[in-house]
Design goal:
Amino acid ABC transporter substrate-binding protein; signal; Solute-binding_3/MltF_N; 11 strands; 255 residues; globular; single chain
Length: 255
């Protein structure tokens, strides 16, 4: 090809490539009210709306597939899935994934039956190891650094019941099979409101976990260029109040 035409072709193509919208493969799992389908079969929720705003601001397109969180993490690690929302940062995950700036906070409480707080005498999470209490958790979720260390010990692990979701934990609690379960307060509020369970539960004063929540990207299928775009978008949406607006909206809906 004539050099003149090659230069001209590159001159025409490069602006198109620069403005081309990147597309990532994302996943979601039913996690009310963060990620779920409404009665119109629309995918909505606090994380979905935040994620969509961030990627839109970053000029990144995405497709989204429903899959279990554990499998999602495995696919991020293998590079078969590009991106995940609602993620906690851990040293293990940092080996195979980039983490964005935090876009929201997460708090986890111990929830018990109304009137049971005085009966369940736990001052620290480690006290569970020497007790007869059984506490429910959801498979694949992160409950903080202290929990992650304790769960590797047999005497603590024996006091943990692992299930797939909050619905199962509530069933187990109501049947008396567990003494309480770990959950974030926004999920609990939404669940109580949805199923009209007001007054049935209370939050135990035991401190479990509070930390930041991030978007994570596969190191095998994405780059720090994409990470920078997402971080810049998060900065912009924090400075203009959009992310706070989304968070407040969902807190009110489920309050």
């Amino acid at each position: 090809m004539n050099k003149k035409y090659l230069v001209l072709s590159l001159f025409l193509i490069l602006p198109i490539l620069a403005n081309a919208q990147e597309k990532l493969n994302a996943g979601w799992e039913l996690w009310y009210p963060y990620q779920y389908h409404n009665n119109k079969n629309q995918l909505i929720g606090l994380d979905i709306e935040s994620f969509d705003a961030i990627l839109s601001q970053a000029n990144i397109n995405y497709s989204i597939t429903e899959l279990p969180w554990k499998r999602h993490l495995m696919m991020i690690k293998a590079g078969h899935m590009d991106i995940a929302m609602g993620a906690s940062k851990t040293s293990e995950r940092e080996e195979y994934a980039y983490f964005s700036l935090p876009y929201r906070k997460e708090l986890v409480n111990l929830v018990v039956k109304r009137g049971d707080t005085k009966r369940i005498k736990l001052n620290t999470l480690a006290d569970l190891s020497d007790s007869d209490y059984l506490i429910g958790v959801e498979s694949g979720y992160y409950y903080g650094e202290q929990y992650a260390k304790l769960i590797t010990k047999k005497n603590f692990h024996n006091n943990i019941s692992e299930v797939i979701d909050i619905e199962e934990n509530v069933k187990q609690l109501n049947k008396g099979h567990i003494d309480g379960f770990l959950v974030d307060p926004i999920t609990l509020k939404a669940f109580v409101k949805k199923y009209k369970l007001d007054g049935q539960f209370e939050i135990h004063p035991l401190t479990i976990y509070q930390d930041d929540i991030y978007i994570m990207l596969s190191k095998k299928s994405t780059s720090t260029i994409t990470l920078d775009k997402i971080n810049n978008a998060i900065k912009h949406l924090k400075s203009n109040g959009k992310l706070k607006e989304i968070s407040n909206k969902w807190s009110k809906i489920n309050g």
